[in-house]
Write a structure and sequence with these properties.
7 strands; 5-stranded mixed sheet; Alpha-Beta Plaits; alpha/beta; single chain
């Protein structure tokens, strides 16, 4: 059986149950509401700064859109697509490279395998591109320029079986 405990000085001090300290104080509804408001503000600040920071990073890293390079009223940065429909599979790359050497922008040079075009022409989406198409004639030789508002590309060089290159092609 347990022996009776002897009392010491600490047992003689009266317990102070009224003093609980700040960490033990009960939170009121007002305290909880203030804490919730601070958490909401902090999460909004963190979320929005993350979102806008990511948008800024994407805009600074991403490839910028081409700037306008206007010479004598002609924007030389208008993209030009070269389509080889001659059936030879030899014209798209050299003609595209010749246009690139002429300081023009050629993002696509394609070869049509199953379709052979009989007529060569330059298709433009807007009348504004006619001056650039005429400038291209110095490199390509004489080709008719056709306005087609439903064209897939802004300027499209279609090379058919009747095309005779002005530049030497290997």
């Amino acid at each position: 059986m347990a022996k009776p405990k002897q009392q010491d000085l600490l047992d003689q001090i009266a317990a102070d149950y009224k003093h609980a300290g700040r960490h033990r104080a009960k939170k009121t509804a007002r305290d909880r509401l203030i804490e919730l408001a601070w958490l909401a503000v902090a999460s909004i600040v963190l979320s929005s700064s993350g979102y806008f920071g990511l948008q800024y990073a994407v805009k600074s890293i991403a490839t910028p859109s081409p700037t306008q390079r206007i010479v004598n009223g002609v924007d030389l940065n208008t993209p030009i697509t070269v389509i080889d429909g001659s059936g030879t599979r030899k014209l798209a790359s050299p003609i595209g490279q010749a246009l690139l050497n002429g300081k023009l922008v050629v993002p696509y040079s394609r070869t049509l395998d199953k379709i052979i075009l009989t007529k060569s022409l330059i298709k433009i989406q807007k009348e504004d591109f006619r001056a650039l198409a005429k400038r291209m004639l110095l490199i390509l030789g004489e080709l008719p320029i056709v306005l087609d508002k439903d064209s897939k590309y802004p300027i499209e060089v279609r090379l058919g079986s009747d095309y005779v290159p002005k530049i030497p092609i290997n």
